[in-house]
Amino acid sequence: MYLPREEGQGLVEYALILVLVAIVVIAILLLVGPQIANIFSKVTNGLSTT
Fold first, then answer.
1. What is the pTM of this model?
2. For residues 21 and 15, what is the distance between their CA atoms, to the nearest angstrom?
3. In the 3-class helix/strand/coil scheme, how is 16-47 assigned residue by residue?
4. What's the pLDDT score for residue 2?
5. What pLDDT score does 7 carry?
6. How far apart are CA 22 and CA 14, in angstroms?
7. For the CA atoms of 24, 35, 43, 23, what is the dihedral angle to 10 degrees?
8. Tell me: the pLDDT tens digits for 10-30?
9. Residues 19, 12: Cα–Cα separation, whole Å
10. Residue 8: is its pLDDT beyond 80?
């Protein structure tokens, strides 16, 4: 009897999940990145003036 091989299917599913997670992380960084940069510049300016 012919048994289908599904080993490659699992790998493709993991790759798709990884791509989706990467897209979500990039989108979050694009939205929140400028705010984080402002916080770091305020901290840097505060440390340099003391």
1. 0.61
2. 10
3. HHHHHHHHHHHHHHHHHHHHHHHHHHHHHHHH
4. 63
5. 65
6. 12
7. 10
8. 888 999 999 999 999 999 999
9. 10
10. no
